[in-house]
What we know:
Layout: H1 6-27, H2 29-50, H3 53-64, H4 67-73, H5 80-100, H6 108-123, H7 132-143, H8 155-164, H9 167-179, H10 200-221, H11 224-240, H12 243-259, H13 267-284, H14 286-294, H15 301-304, H16 308-321, H17 331-334, H18 341-346, H19 354-381, H20 387-403, H21 414-452
Amino acid sequence: MRTVPPAILSAFLLLLIVTGLLLTAIASPQMALALLPAAAALMLALLFYEAPVLAIALLVVAFGLAFDLQFGEFGGAAGLGPAIVKLLPFGIAAMLCLRYGFAPAINWPFVAFFVILAISLIVLPMGRISTFGEMIRSFVGSVAPFVIAFAAAPRPFWSALCKAVILVPLISATVGILLWPTGLQTPFDPNWRFMGMHSAPFLAGFCTTAIFAATLEYLRSFRTRWLVLGGAVLAVLLLTQARAPLSAVVLFLVLVFLLSGRRTFPLKRKVDLAMGGLLPAAILFLPLIAIGLERFIETDEATAFSGRDIIWPLFVDAIENRPLFGYGLGAGKLLVDPEDPQIRLIQSNAAHNEYLRLAVEGGMLGAALIFGSIIAWVWLGTRRAFPADRLVIRCALVAALLHAGFDNTLIASTAVIQFAWFAAALARARLEHQEAARGDVVRRAIARRAQRA
């Protein structure tokens, strides 16, 4: 039985939509106007279905331009922008699943968050402090970074996504600088920390993922362009003066440099990189390095911990009161009173520590389950990967786990890009292993036939 090609199916559905709109416009113009946004969204979905790489472009542009932050600045509803960027991965995953089916690997982080949601709804009816709607919103926001891992797609799609995430902080930085003279955007905050189109911590989070990605592409091909792009991202990261992301990147690069074998990262390449890249870059970036390290040596107690010394004890006290199962998914947002004078002073009620936040929401058992699932997802997913992929992805995981102790790395929009990269890198490695295994089978079959002849 012959299957209908996707192009013909998309064209047929598009024709049906346009025809339906025209007939509706003739019969009831007002209804046609009401249906127009939904029809436009459906036609856009068909376009992405026909050309999935366009979905990658949409993802990169939406996060590079900080749609979640900028939407409210230009007159949109304040909460609509963050909701759209969190729902975007669901739309892309649904499109990929419809076209290519489901991935064979188990999505362990999604399973872990689903278990925490079930516990929040069933086991904690008396202890939870968040509403049903807040728990569902928190669940959607928590699993948004991982839903794309459900989808199967060809290797070129995953490879394009692995490379495209490098552009997110560069788009933010470039557009922020270009808009500066117009007055529409100020790329520096009041403390002269560079933020592009984002805030400085968010831009730094995107830089972290971009450096993971650039390093992986460099070790896979040793092409200079990945060093150039990685260096540009590192310059942006230094300008943000973000300490936790910079610490995570330094740990990641040191681990890759020290743990790579001769085949993965030959000694000659390391020497060439050190003498021809790192030393000139260190001289070139010396002013940026001084700016980036300035906040590491702060002595002012009011700013040295950026409010973490104020907010962390509140979460620790809550954990001590309900250590095993916590207060329910979404409770982290409700634990801190936003009207508290100290909280208003630091202008944030976020934990800035995912271990503490998840221990409050799911208890220590829930936090262990979630981080254990992420470790299992990445570690097991790289068992059969080629050495360069296995090294970089695992070192990136270690760096991400460190970063999670000082920032909101699982619930912020930066998590969508970071774990989309993890999912894409794991999927590409899995498909390359399968292709190599099929190649080995073919070669063995040819060898056996040659022996018989």
